[in-house]
Amino acid sequence: MGTAPRSQAYAHIRPHRPTEPPMTDPLPQGLARTGRTTRVPKPPRERTWKDLSPLLRLLILTQLAFNVGFYAVLPFLAEHLGTAIGMAGWLVGFVLGLRTFSQQGLFVVGGWLVDRHGVRPVVLAGCVLRIAGFAWLGYAGSIWSVVGAVLLIGFAAALFSPAVESEVARQAVLWEQEGRGPRTRVLALFSAAGQAGAFVGPLLGGLLLVVDFRTACLAGAGVFVLVLAGHVRLMPQHIPGRVRTRERGGVRAMLVNRRFLALCCAYGTYLLAYNQLYLALPDEVERATGSQTPLSWLFALSSLLVVCAQLPVTRWAGDRLDLRRSMAGGLLLIAAGFAVVAAARPAGWSGAVGLLPAAGFVVLLTLGQMLVVPAARAWVPDLAEDGRLGLYTGALSSVSGLIVLVGSSATGSLLDLGLPAAVPWLVLAAVPALAVALLPRRGVS
Q: Residues in domain Major facilitator superfamily (MFS) profile (predicted)?
């Protein structure tokens, strides 16, 4: 819907002076979507967090808490299913796949519900379901009980994640229109908060597992009880400028929005590349060291890089690159990460030296992630139909998740074909590099 008028979601707001109450009066008419970060005066670096609205702070801290609660439990689920429940390996994989499908695949449903009913009720419903799911999982003792709990946990995320992400994106656009800085800076804070939660969560879960898995599950549920209480108290009943859409037809219009679907495909190649942390990277680490132990250190390296470098990288990119160039640069960095391993494989290095290509891959992949993720999320409001930001935000994850599902199967087959050592990594390098051509070339046609 490249010719769609400026979103009604922003129609009640105009840039304001620091002495005026924010988000109360109309925007000047005629603001066009550009698909790129507006050039605005550069605010003082140390004031990014301080200048955020209370709502944005709540949503960013929510992302941190979500991931702390989630990663305190889920990294240890496979071991629990295999040992405590006694599931076969294929069944463990099936259950984990169900969780991913019930979450990623249903994001588009959650986004549609957000557009229809608003942010607050969808977030609160997601928190309630997540609390119930974690508590259920802690006491689940049979296969079907575990499956029910896991599906509930996944669907809970399919509700609150599109709600939070779409509202953060909308608020980031307002931040940019008010002249406070590029929208990607807000979205970078959001990404960094999520990675901080992903780093802290497993540490918390590991400590709780000293007691047992049930304790970890109940602690995860407790985190979401706090999140629920915070949102009941602090989340506005109606967010100014957020328009609820009751009309039908949004999905049909989205499916013919070629520019948005192109963005989804490009973003999907990033997610497919990121998924190689769990598929191709373990194979490389095992080859180099004969053990999976270094994987945990490489995962920690990735999380710490995002926590420590996301904001400086986004600040640098926001001052120099538009959204398309930021995504293109990120995808090319990811391609370079795969190429590093491909170039080193013929040498057959092993031991600590053999881990250097894998570490280079993780660093380049993470740097590419820091450019791609904020830019993709910042671009969605420019491509979304009026009043459909939740639907489009959810669809970005669902369509990309489908690409990962198909692509991961192909990648697994590629790694098992017995090809020359460098070939699978060269193929994986070509995918994000070619995806650059898919990126929309203009903000609005």
A: 55-445
| pLDDT tens for each residue of 241-289 | 676 666 666 788 888 899 999 999 999 999 889 888 877 888 888 888 8
Tens of pLDDT, residues 145-182: 988 998 899 899 889 888 998 899 888 888 888 888 88
pTM comes to: 0.75
CATH assignment of 52-237, given 1.20.1250.20, 3.20.20.70, 1.10.630.10, 3.40.50.10260?
1.20.1250.20
Rounded distance between C-alpha atoms, residue 325 and residue 77, angstroms:
39
